[in-house]
Amino acid sequence: MDVAVPLFRMEGVSKRYGGVRALEEAELNVHRGRVHAILGENGAGKSTLIKVMAGVVAPDKGRMTLEGQEVSFPDPASANNAGIVCIFQELSLIPDLSVADNIVISNPPKRFGMIDRRAQRRIAEEALARAGGADIHPMAPVKELPLSRRQIVEIAKALARRPRILILDEATSALTAADVVKVFAVLKRLRAEGLALLYISHRMHEIAEIADECTVFRNGRNVATYLTGTKTDNEVVEMMIGREYSHVFPPKSPAVRSDKPPMLEVRNLSWMQRLRDISLTARAGEVVGLGGLDGQGQRELLLALFGVLKGVSGEVLIDGKPTVIGSPRMAKSRTAGMALIPEDRKTEGLMLPMPVRDNLSFAALDRFCHGGIIDRTAERKAIDEMIKLLSIRSDGVDVPVGSLSGGNQQKVVIAKWLMMTPRIILLNDPTRGIDVGTKQEIYQLLHRLADSGAAIIFYSTDYDELIGCCNRVLVLYDGAVKRTLVEDEITERALIASALNIAVEQVEAGIKPAINA
Amino acid sequence: MSDWRYRLAEQRGTLLAIAIFLVMFVIYVSNHPAGFTANVVQTAANKGVLLALVAMAQTLVVLTAGIDLSVGMVFTLTNCIGSYIVTGSMGTALLGVLGVLVTGLMCGALNGLIVIYGRLQPIVTTIATGSIYYGIALWLRPQPGSDDNFNSDIADLMTSQLPGGIPMSLVALLMVVLVVWLPFRRSAVGRAVYAVGSSEVAAYMSGVPIRRAKFVAYTLSGLLSAMGGLYVTFITYSGEASFAGGGSYTLFSIAAVVLGGVSLFGGVGSAVGAIFGALAFRTIGDLIFVFDLEALWQELFQGVVLLLAVCIGAARLFQVRNRLDLFS
Fold it and tell me: Which of A357, A394, A514, B258 has the most crowded Cβ, counting Cβ within 10 A?
């Protein structure tokens, strides 16, 4: 295999952002008909690497060759023309345009100088079918589609450009398990057709299934390239984080038995047709997980608890007292003491152009105010404490939060809410698209918060997290709680079976049993 | 069948604007002493077409998520230039018309170049260039007037009545829609304009020609404003550098665009909607006339109708059950 000339080659590529070295003498060989996985922590240089390949940023030095010819890409369009197409982690779809408009956006079919809508429709339908999204209507506006469907459109859009090298950056992180299966089938077919695929993901089991070879990046350098299956997960993670890899999850604290009323109790909560008769309790010190396939009402449940939804029926009790929460402002008040770590940190969690400092103190600003004036000294002290607690890496607290890496941004979101010392913490898939190191820190943090007496509701699309972090898991299906799993019952097999709403025996053949089942 | 559902949803704003216009126009003609006659329609059309052209100009820039505060001043400048160069024989007058349109194109192109390469915000850029355009207009026509050789034949033709009582100005407007708007809407660069307005980052990442899209939007905007300026020259036979006139056309164009269902956030709407928004907005003034109210009520009444119309457009927000949808 090694005798083959690489389709694409990158040598000695470096890129700095200010004082930060994002890429340092990076090297990469991409071959036809292979899936090449890129692994690395946040800030290891993966994003910069693919941005250089896709023409989004220009490298400071180094050279790239495509089929032996030296190439350079001043903008994404020229990379596309050379056959390098990237599916970015941050979706690149245009919300107000239709699915079909989006699929052909970079090169619409034309007749007599005008866009040929019939041809466009045909191309869109073909591409959607290839990407496993034949059920998506080509005329639907993208903004009306849920996240997982948008990701399918994103893949269809890439395929419509007939790429030679397809880069997938966390392309499956928003997908449901069923969609991932479909996408993998597509990727395997593309590989057989001779396409080169570059696959960036934090999900190790996905890499094990799809990748032929892997390259690990650390601190902007490629530290190792190996064939899939020749290294254990432990070895890989060690190479990525460059430190000893012990246990990913901190040991769980046993659930608290207490006669006190639960900190949060929900009775018969319903909302439109999306939430059906949901009841749950969370005691102080307990981590309650929400499981199930993506889009079964988990997000809506958290939003309903946080006072974002209108027309919610049912009862919410805090410390045993019925409480009406009509807005996020009421939710974070001292009586409720709730915090919500949102799913989309870019729009719901952070004010990207504002400095880290201001972002951190927004939720807890009341606490530093005397007569409407912000007490700068108290604010600064609290911010410094938070930055130390979460070890947020940053050139300073005065840079715009948008300039931090994804993992650090997510830590800022979490820190912002911790500053008001919430008693009930709602987390909406907080580790999506985040590196292993930061994930671990977030698990530790959850553990500490629970120990200090907070009640935590934790939605995750990653089953391992639910198994590793939760005392109880409620599996949602079609807006209702399908099953409640307690302690040792929380296994991968049980989670998947109840998520798909089928009996355990039926999936046994397809899914390997969980370790502690 | 579901194709139709999406098509209807896409045209929602435009259809609403048409409905608002029709309701107001029916009230107007049914209360007009002369009733639904060719002359009533003619007068309404001539006035309406001026604002409709400027509103179309505004639409193009608003679709890119920008705003053009110079449309009224381009309108005024081209009106003044028209009063100088649409002169002599039919041949030279037509050359003059061409000259006016090219002036508009250049004004729009300048706006576009500054916004694209100067990276200034559209609102600031067009306030500045608008002042410049007005300054030139005032320099050309310190007093209202026209050239002695002004070709009134072409002016009369463009404001005439066709057989059957159809106003020529409406036909001209229809031609502009067919020749300028529809090809633009169906072209790749038109799609790029919508993409840029909807999400500039996503458009960039998709390799959409952002600069070309903005440049075309601003340039065509200048052209459409110049068509409005030309028409006012045809109607009045003269040029006038009126600051208040230019300013009110700019503000009314924004009102018309909003009435027409074009989103000020960019990426949503149609110039056809803006045309009906403009016609509806003009009809308000006419309603004041038929109900014999004092002219001072006009501004107030226009404001109220504009607010009501925007409220109708926003009514579906009451059905929103997820407050996060209010912000998107």
Answer: B258
- Flag whether pLDDT at A361 surpasses 90: no
Q: What is the pLDDT of residue B274?
A: 96
Confidence category of residue A511, pLDDT binned at 50, 70, 90: very low
Report all structural domains of chain A as residue ranges with CATH numbers, in order of start: 8-241 (3.40.50.300), 247-337+423-517 (3.40.50.300), 345-421 (no CATH)
- Out of A443-447, B45-49, B85-89, B256-260, least confident range: A443-447
Number of compact structural domains in chain B: 1
Quickly list DSSP for B126-178.
Answer: HHHHHHHHHHHHHHH-SSSB--TTB-HHHHHHHT-EETTTEEHHHHHHHHHII
Q: Distances from the Cα of B109 to the Cαs of A285, B60, B62, B101, B226, in angstroms?
A: 64, 13, 16, 12, 13
The residue that leads in pLDDT, B51 or A431, is B51
Instruction: Please state the ipTM of this predicted complex.
Output: 0.82
Measured CA to CA, the distance from residue B108 to residue B116 in angstroms comes to 12
A456: enclosing H helix or E strand: strand A455-459
* Position B4 in a domain: no
Suggest the residue from A78, A94, A111 to mutate for an interface test with chain B (most B CBs closer than 10 A). A94
Query: What pLDDT is attached to residue A413?
Result: 86
Helix pair B12-31, B271-290: axis angle to 10 deg? 20
CA A270 to chain B, closest CA, distance in angstroms equals 12
Q: DSSP assignment, residue A349?
A: I
Does any CB of chain B come closer than 8 Å to the CB of residue A276? no
Q: Is residue B5 part of a domain?
A: no
Nearest neighbour of B321 by CB, restricted to A77, A141, A311? A311
Q: What is the reported pTM?
A: 0.75
Range of the domain at B264: 10-326
For residue B1, tell me if it sits in a domain: no
**Tell me, what's the pLDDT at B138?**
95
Task: Give the amino acid at A71.
Answer: V
Q: Which residue has the higher pLDDT, B209 or A258?
A: B209
Nearest CA in chain B to A76: B207
Checking if the pLDDT of A1 tops 80, the result is no
Residue B322 and residue A308: Cβ atoms within 8 Å? yes
Quick one: which of B220, B212, B178, B177 has its CA closest to B192? B212
- Identify the CATH number of the domain in which residue B284 sits: 1.10.3470
In a domain, B190, yes or no: yes
